[in-house]
Give the backbone structure.
Amino acid sequence: MWYAQPASRWEEALPLGNGRLGAMVFGGVQRERIQLNEESLWAGKRFDNNNPKAFEHLRDIQELLLKGENKTAHELARKYMVGTPTDFRSYQTLGDIYLDFGFQGSTKHYKRSLDLHRGVAETSYEINGIRFNRKIFASTSDNVIVIWITADKNSALSGKITLSRLKDASITADGNTITMNGQIVDVTDSLTGEGGLNMKFHAIVKVDAYGGGTQTAGNSVLVESADSIRIILSAATDYHLPKLQFDRSINSLDTAKKLLHQAEQYASSELLNRHIHTFSKEFGKFSLRLGNADKLHIATDKRLQAFKNGESDHQLFALYTQFGRYLLLSSSGFFAKLPANLQGIWNEHYDAPWGSDYHTNINLQMNYWPVDVTNLSSAIQPLLNFIDRYRIPGRITARKMYGAKGWTMHHATDIFGKTGIISGIHWGTSPLAGAWLTTHFWEHYLFNPDNAFLRHVAYPVMKEAVEFVQDFLIEGPNGYLVTAPSMSPENAFYLPDGTAEQLTYAPAMDIQIIRELYKGTIQAAKILKEDKRLIEILEATLKRLPPTKISSKTGIIMEWIEDYDEVEKGHRHISQLYALYPGSQISRETPDLFKAADATIARRLTYGGGHTGWSRAWIINFYARLMKGNDAFEHIKLLLQKSTLPNLFDDHPPFQIDGNFGGTAGIAEMLLQSHNGIEILPALPEAWKEGEVKGIKARGGFELSFSWENGKLKDLLVLSKYGGECVLRYKEKTVIINTEKGKIYTPVENFRY
């Protein structure tokens, strides 16, 4: 990725990250801005947000819903189920580093770039015959941010380095070091008294001017006549994930000092090479080529604009895929303790859109759709750790709100363990958000079938999630077991009297999530040879769940237990198709539902669906599962044309990173599917006549590399990471290979046409 001019706004800057630290690089000449983030820097604090009266009124609310008195049930739920306070505070920027060089003359040969394979942003230009260069990286080996500035003439570098934050911090300079001392001050909530002095944080900037001198000026360091400059930023907070809270026993200043001291022992070139080695080792496990003509000579923003104007550029899709992988690795790999949030790790605000939070009614889940299939399996660990920790407050929510065993959470949360209903009953009632998140453990196991992981990590979380669901289910009409209260995110329906409502029982997505979770848990228990009685209970429950139904009025998959009309026919959520993707219950083996799923998407699109970036990305995955490559391709085009910013960030609008991750997953799903055996090129569009993918992963523990020409499979390698049976399909042919662990197979001759 490269650009021929500096960024004029945040959405044009280039992202760097090592999981814990993030930076947005603007590439200015006279003045450079580098906006900073630390993954755990949040306003707010931990408190119990469960409504203490929820369980007392739960049965009344459930009975009202079963009797069709939705509006009355809604009012009761609004009073007695929404948490207190009703919302939480935001993920925040750490601040900015500014590099001021002053006007030195007219600029020639300007270029700023982001090397996705090495995780390095570079800015270069020429002034008065002198070539200047800046390399910036969030070190994935030494856990700091490094800015390395050079020129091809001695003593050519002079300027001012400033560390800035607009609130809740004091900044001082001493010698060649700038220190930020911060503590977030929250306005006290009038209802709960929550607020006051909360998270502490520190940042240190060390400026080394080689061949020149330094002096302090306020919160800045001045550099005079240096040959090269190295700036190292270290930062930390006192947040402690195991406690889901900041911890005053953690000294964030000491942490920042220690990281800085460790990093400054290395020369600039060593820091760079150590980082590149670590980053490229992970990133390089997967590659993609779509066609032969790559327009690398064209600046990325110009290239994107040309594509929006109708020019063909198939390699732009490959770049977009790799950019998505880059963002996931940079926001959830290496030193990350927390999962990628709504903006990954990159946020310039103190009060971000949606708090830059963890939305768990699809958005957090979508962030991790590409993690295994595109060979970034290590980057899922922060998500799994996060879910595991949330079992603790989730048990309290299960007990206090529903009188249930196990654990649960609702539609959104922060880093402080809030698992009650947030924001309002019409948004927040997603009692199976925890169950959905739990399916990521099972999916990760399917791609990486390590039985020790299943026994000690995945299965305990899965088992506890099904314990909640078992207790939460109640008997509804016709003897079905149903969920109540619940909703279909975030859509509404018309009641028979014409009023709009959201609260209901047994929305289609709930039942589909339960099926996915229960089938995985049953299979896991059988693999581990445990819990025979639990298997019997879950199998009996599955038989009593309401079926996924087709509307007699429209021919689409019904979103609710009744055949209601939608308030928003083009709603961004298409929740009743969870069973198609990321679930696996709707497939060619269920032809009526398969056809109805196609009709569901068509209806949503007819009424303007897919208008947000992440929703469009979900549609790509739907069409891939429907084996409709040309349709999936059209929506990748629309994702880039309508929902992609100049730096390739997803535009919800505003920026929201899930569309990047969902789009990346969708492209991978077009090339390989493995939810029912391994299907090669299941949704290849006519436009991608030739291409090559290396290192794409399949369930069962297989890693594939293959190429195609004129739309036909050319080469195929299959690496068996764990051994076992491998079922391969290409078009109408199926090949079964009994593999051995660590061996490579080349069965392409079996698929010649």
Q: What stands out?
A: The chain is about 30% helix and 25% strand.
